[in-house]
Amino acid sequence: MIAIDALMVCLDLSDIDIKLVAFARSICERLTVRKVYFVHNIKVYELSDEFKEWFGDVDLLSEVEGSIQDIVAEQFGNVTDHEVLVSEEPNTEVILANLVKRYRVQLTILGKKMSDKSTGALGSKLLRVLPCSMLVFPETARLDIQKVLVPIDFSDTSVHALRLSKNLSDQSNLQLEIMHVYRLPRQFFPLISEEKAVKKAVEIVKKKFADLQKKHQEIANVPYTLVRAANKSIAERITLHLEKGGHDLLVLGLKGNNPLPSLSLGSVPTEMYNTDIKVPLWLVYSGDVIKQAT
Length: 294
Description:
Strand content: 15-25%
Structural class: alpha/beta
Largest sheet: 10 strands, mixed
């Protein structure tokens, strides 16, 4: 069973905040979440002189806190214990990383606007500095989740993401599909026919799946799909499969091999984050990685 002691929701006072708070509510209704922190950091130095002249000595922190509390009251209610935290610090990444460590946050929800509206620079930074798993919610995503896709490469990190996804699907009665994207060793063509190479590659991957199912019998009946990368990247193949399969959530494991304080996303999760997908993206660090980072 998935139990989250502390969940953090990052708000930016834009229209997406309402969806993020409502999404947090849906998570709390599906999973055991003990406390939720709704957070926002005010960068006072970014306020224009015109703003300061118009509003004078207004208590901006209290005003922002009140605005967020109104949204939380309307969209979240009293589903579980929660708290609104508003700060005034020059560096948002630092203050949020400190909150994660102070309150032992296990999962952070982060909104993501489409690329034509935002560069996503802050989100990219947060993904690398927050010592916890991240759930990225695009502004076009639906709140209701019924079908989950978890791509794996048979590494320990992807297997961890798969087992979490299986727990999630069992706990919330969701459909789960495993996906693996494989490449052919093109340097051997035309010495080996492409048909034989594809047959051999599929044979090898199926053997890996069989071994994985023997080791983790709880995933033995989960359907899996093999997709050849061909002339596209792994992330592009995942995106196409998401659109074709009508999935509502994508789960990816994160490696965390880089020296602290940075955490390593890996090339595929990074590319997926920078893609305008329309489903939430759950980027999962294992517990061991989190311990090393804190």
